[in-house]
Write a structure and sequence with these properties.
Length: 369
């Protein structure tokens, strides 16, 4: 077994400004830093996954950007192949979730299984105790419980703790996130400019890395067209209103792009994959005060034994809302909000907070009772 060096860290370098500055900060702090870009896109001649473009967070230009930063910092740099495990754990899951009427968040799966799973194992194989990223969050240790906690970033508008609710104690204790202490993205860009990094003004990526054009429907259709079958739009009473083009094209709360005119605004309020139906209703029907979540993980403690009051986010961009979570069997919880929430969406994560501390979260199964 390889002895792990607490002074050695592997950092995932995407070629962006955040991971570049994070690598610089770690070296400045005295760590022995190794830069790695994870190659997660298949080759151009792979018919199953032909998306190895010269753009995005893992394209050729991104690799070149990361390598230039590493050379400037004088740290070792490697490009490593994570294509197969990424396809199996992230992309295939993404497609399967949409086909089954759910709206997934692939970044959450990637963080747990790839960045803090496979990359952490690779770091350990190189003798590094830590793996680091350019995410905006803080890792702290609770001296009273000896548990590792995740705390919101000082840059509130950039906070990314929502993405880490499902990490384990063994993962968290091996993670470094040096950007969490900074109060704004502008500070990070200024550091990059001072270091004369070419990526100092590089724009942030806004889309899912493996779908650069943001067209989910097209991406899924090209890979699993046989599962995309037109079906019925229905109302809450079960009356057929028209035809939809396949449930992968819709998500809870959606109003635009439905391809149907009812003489009044219509919203997707439910998706029923077992019947291939999309239920339409009024805006008021989109709101719900309760949800059930599965595969729940808690960070400050091992298991929820009794109801607790927290604040919860039902999607990455949502504001935390006051709620109570109740333990259920089979690693599930019921979440009851003080006020109704708009578009609670199966497949998305509901994430819990106690002030700035990330309490945990789970995958939304359904809204209502």
């Amino acid at each position: 077994m390889i002895a792990l060096d607490r002074n050695k860290v592997v950092i995932g370098m995407s070629g962006g400004v955040d991971s570049s500055v994070a690598a610089y900060l770690l070296k400045k702090q005295g760590y022995e830093v190794i830069g790695i870009t994870m190659k997660v896109w298949q080759d151009d001649n792979d018919k199953d996954y032909d998306n190895d473009k010269d753009d995005g967070c893992c394209g050729l230009s991104a690799v070149d950007d990361a390598r230039r930063v590493a050379n400037k910092l004088g740290i070792p740099f490697y490009v490593m192949n994570f294509k197969s495990i990424f396809k199996e754990t992230v992309i295939d899951n993404f497609i399967d979730e949409y086909i089954n009427g759910r709206t997934p968040n692939p970044c959450i799966v990637c963080n747990k299984r790839i960045k803090f799973g496979e990359l952490l194992r690779k770091a350990h194989s190189l003798g590094a105790y830590y793996v680091a990223t350019g995410h905006y969050a803080k890792i702290i240790k609770d001296d009273k419980t000896s548990r590792y906690l995740i705390k919101k970033s000082s840059a509130e508008s950039k906070d990314q703790t929502y993405m880490f609710y499902n990490l384990t104690q063994d993962q968290i204790k091996h993670i470094l996130m040096p950007l969490g202490e900074y109060s704004s993205k502008e500070e990070i860009r200024n550091i990059a400019k001072e270091m004369e990094f070419d990526v100092a003004n590089k724009p942030d990526s806004q889309e899912i890395c493996f779908i650069p054009d943001n067209d989910y429907g097209k991406f899924i259709s090209e890979r699993n067209a046989s599962c995309i079958i037109p079906g019925d739009f229905i109302d809450t009473e079960g009356n057929v209103l028209g035809k939809h083009k396949g449930i992968i094209h819709y998500t809870i709360g959606q109003r635009k792009g439905l391809g149907i005119s009812l003489g009044k605004p219509a919203y997707v309020i439910d998706i029923r994959p077992e019947k291939n139906q999309v239920v339409l209703g009024d805006n008021a029907d989109v709101f719900s005060q309760k949800l059930i979540a599965k595969d729940v993980n808690f960070i400050p403690f091992e298991k929820l034994e009794a109801p607790i009051e927290i604040k919860a986010k039902i999607r990455y961009s949502a504001k935390p809302a006051e709620a109570t979570i109740y333990p259920l069997k089979e690693n599930m919880v019921k979440v009851e909000f003080n006020k109704p929430q708009r578009a609670i969406t199966p497949g998305q994560a509901v994430v819990f907070y106690d002030g700035d501390i990330l309490v945990g979260g789970g995958t939304i199964v359904k809204s209502g009772e």
